[in-house]
Amino acid sequence: MSFSDLTYRKYVLGTAALIVVIIYVVRLFSLQLLSDDYRARADSNALMRRIQFPARGAITDRRGKLLVYNQPAYDIMVVMQEQDGVDTLGLCRSLGITREWYIKRMDEIRRTKGYSPYTQQVFMNQLSMREFSSFQEKLFHFRGFYIQKRSIRQYTYPYAAHILGDVGEVSPADIEADDYYRSGDYIGTQGVERSYERQLRGIKGSEILIRDVHGRIKGRYQDGRFDQKPVPGKNLTLSIDLELQKLGERLMKGKLGSIVAIEPSTGEILCMVTSPTYDPRTMVGRQRGKRHRELSLDPMKPLLNRAIMGTYPPGSTFKTSQALTFLEEGIITPQTAFPCSHGFRFRGLKVGCHGHGSPLPLIPAIGTSCNGYFCWGLYYMLGNRSKYPTVQDALTTWKDYMVSMGFGYKLGVDLPGEKRGFIPNADYYDNAYKGSWNGLTVISISIGQGEVTLTPLQIANLGATIANRGWFITPHIVKSVQDEDLDTLYLKRRYTKVSRTNYETVVAGMQRAVENGTCRVANNPWYVTCGKTGTAQNRGHDHSVFMGFAPRDNPQIAVAVYVENGGWGATYGVPIGALIMEQYINGHLSPASEKKAEVFSNRTINYGSTTR
Description:
Blueprint: H1 3-34, H2 36-43, E1 47-52, E2 59-60, E3 66-78, H3 88-95, H4 99-110, E4 121-127, H5 129-136, E5 145-155, H6 161-164, E6 167-169, H7 172-177, E7 186-188, H8 191-195, H9 197-201, E8 205-211, E9 217-220, E10 236-238, H10 242-251, E11 257-263, E12 268-275, H11 288-297, H12 306-309, H13 319-328, E13 343-346, E14 349-352, H14 362-368, H15 371-382, H16 391-404, H17 426-433, H18 456-467, E15 471-473, E16 478-481, E17 493-495, H19 500-516, E18 530-536, E19 543-550, E20 557-563, H20 573-586, H21 591-602
């Protein structure tokens, strides 16, 4: 063997030895410094890190009335590595649970994402003070089990359930989406509890405790030097007026539908009623899951927030948007008159209408809610080839006006689950009619029927936009957040494509409707009201709709009322809307109005076995 071969082998053996040493060093470094598992195993012998949960932010109405607050509750935590040999039958008897429940819960804990046998896991949550006191006396018998103090939500009043939402245990998807959460944590699941979760939840703290060889807590590690105090969640002030919300829910009792009221100058939602509703106070504690299942199986769908999730034909309230479009596009002037012989009649097509004078110009047409007038307006717009090269171009222009008024897309309210409604475009009709259609084909959209659907929130926002003569601020339910600015979306004006002058004409028509038209029930001696009825056709009984605002000048409130199967707009929509406006503007109902409110709160609609 040559000298060069020996030299080569020496280097090979030396390199191999060096690689082995490096592998051992890296492994030791990994085990001792990087491995959470080994660190947790070592630390758990002497130290225990206990999470300190922050107080969730309180919620008040616009006048400072406390709607949601916290009260103490207690969770039983378990460290799986420590609880071997525990008297499980004694534990079950102490907690009033079955052995089968105990086994099932332990199995669930072990299968939880991120599970570690050396850290505390939630075994049982939300014990009341009585349950906690009883179990605390026996806790020393059950090694590996601890009590964690936290808070649960309490709702002061039985109102505004869909606005407030509730709080429930996090799902695996919640944990996956945000590393703030661990198994057993709570999160807002609906309403503002969900949409403002980040502000309400606060920041967790922690304390490190010393344990002896028997697992007993002996005190705080280094006198709490490494403890972190929790940061409480931020308080919310809602824009709703509790008394107005209370009246709205009372008036809608026994009916399906919604009431939405908005302060036009700010976009703040003054009340948002959906019916049927439920008592938010029943959605707390360990019975929340059971109660939620009961509500989800109810055929009347009390969990559905109809104000933002219900999409309906707007009926004649939509005629105001048509008048604005026709005026701005020069299709009509305020003096333009169209005939109405109990409806629109042309080339064998008839759209019916109630009896009134004919022909008539725009302001009386709004006041009497003339179907014929607005059908003629759309027919002339979509058929105007000197202005629009094709019917598709005409409809695209029409749709652009609708979108600028807040239709066809989500408005952006600060609540989860908002629907967009539907405004048809040219492609929709090209596909539906193979490209062969005209103004007569789609004439029903001019009166808020056909394919057009809006949410009650969008109808109320239409009222606010008319009240402002051409602009609106995105409707929102939170007025302010403690130590934080609102999103600029809820501060900026959004202008439509229509001039203020044309809005004034429509305002005059809505005033005519109240003083001498279809909304006469809303007339009152205190302020000038502007309104528009709607009777939306339906497979069954028609829906009763109202949209209006008051006072005419410097308006304080815009409101939409939608009562499913309520018949004429003047039957339910107008009187309910009038009561809502009176309550907010005057701060109370007159004795006569209180009697009306009592009548409507006791008046129910028989929906039979119909499900929605």
